[in-house]
Amino acid sequence: MREKKSHLFVFLCVILLCFVCVAIWSENKNNEAERNSKYVLSEYEGRIALFENGDEIPKEIYDVMISALPQEDAERIIQGIIVENESDLQSLIEDYCS
Fold first, then answer.
1. Given its phi and psi angles, is residue 45 left (phi above 0), alpha (psi -120 to 50 degrees) or beta?
2. CA distance 32 to 85
3. Per residue, what are the HEC states of 15-55?
4. Domain boundaries in the chain?
5. What is the pTM assigned to this prediction?
6. Measured at the alpha carbon of residue 62, what is the angle toward residues 94 and 34, in degrees to the nearest 5?
7. Whether the Cβ atoms of residue 49 and residue 58 lie closer than 8 Å to each other
8. What would the pLDDT profile of 50-65 be if each residue is shown by its tens digit?
9. How are beta strands 39-44 and 81-83 bridged, if at all?
10. Among 56, 65, 83, 90, which residue has the least CB neighbours within 10 Å?
């Protein structure tokens, strides 16, 4: 009986370790994507703003209030939308700011 508990404990530790490793890997992958991205469309003082290469000060602030967006769009902006290239950036700006 004691041996079964020991095996169960080891098994649960291995499962927990796997979850931790996947979480760390996922976080590193997200950080790598942010570092490699050129732009992030996010929120600044309640408005949509464009950030470049992880800067804390926006490159441009748009006259679109986050509160005026549909809830799902507002959540995406608040989380930050990573943009890889100029054409994707232009498309997003047109979608949200026109």
1. left
2. 16
3. HHHHHHHHHHHHHHHHHHHHHHCCEEEEEECCEEEEEECCC
4. 1-36, 37-97
5. 0.60
6. 80
7. yes
8. 999 878 999 999 999 9
9. antiparallel
10. 56
